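**Polypeptide and fold**
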Amino acid sequence: MVFRILIPSERRLCDRVFDGLAPYGDVAFVAAVRTQALQLISFGDTVAAASRAPERLFRVIDMYEAVRDLLPDLDPVFSDPYSAALRAEVSAVCNTLGSSIKGIFMELENLIRRDPARVAVPGGGIHPITRYVMNYLRAACGSRQTLEEVMEGDLGAVGAAAIAVDPDRPTSSLAVHIAWIMDVLHKNLETKSKIYRDPPLASIFLMNNGKYIIHKVNDSELGILLGDEWMEQMMSRVRRWSMEYQRGAWAKVMSVLHTGGPGIGSIPAKAMLQKMRMFNGYLEEICAAQSDWVIADEQLRADIKAAISDSVMPAYTGLIARLRSSPETARDLFKYTPEDVQAHIQHLFEGAAK
């Protein structure tokens, strides 16, 4: 109100009272408005100089936008040499607020780096730091125009003309900054994954967090900022973690199911029965542990179960068929039918439901 109504009104009043006496009118105008203007400028400086905690970003952005939008209106009001210094001070506040926004983004990086790797998320679920950072960045992208402007660093030009933002091709500074934050988050999550003593569970943890990140990026302007190449790289990581989980968790099961030849004669029936007992033990061990693990994304959970089934079921069905064809094999030694094994696989990763 002060800059939009009171100060312009004071300018008009001085121009009328001192009509034809421009220098006196300009001096009177500055004397009348200087105190109020400096109070507001001081308030802007205080906002910019306060804590750079990440949650203050949106308050500082609001202040920055308010000051930036004032600048074009101040040009005709502070056009004389006596009041030009006030206009310059308002512009300087805008620069200071912009620097504060950059500093807050740097503090977000520091917050991620400092987040300790102490307690593992139960079941390999989504870590709170992942939720915080992704939801924070999504909310920040609601002010993308302003962030593009600030990150470009051309703060001296603000107020004259806002920087145009191509919706399909962002300016590089903000995109690079967001990508850097994502890289810091990725490294932090990899460090946290080492807390898990079971490597397959560490892979589940990375998969869950990676898939959550992908979902949040796809569902916001972060997808535009990070681009298709970044997204493909992230999806490739999730696929790699999925394969690492399958190899780590099911390798010993698959080694037991391997019979080494097309016929039952390639391995003695007694050895085949030992394989069956080992398979039963491994299956029970895996299902007891992994039923409490979590795969948060429904489609990812279904894909992992399908991949396990595609690997295990043909080999297990083949082993059953070979044992049944041997006269030395007792039928009551088949503890699990193929349907039972499939049911066990389908009950994996129910930690969230429990």
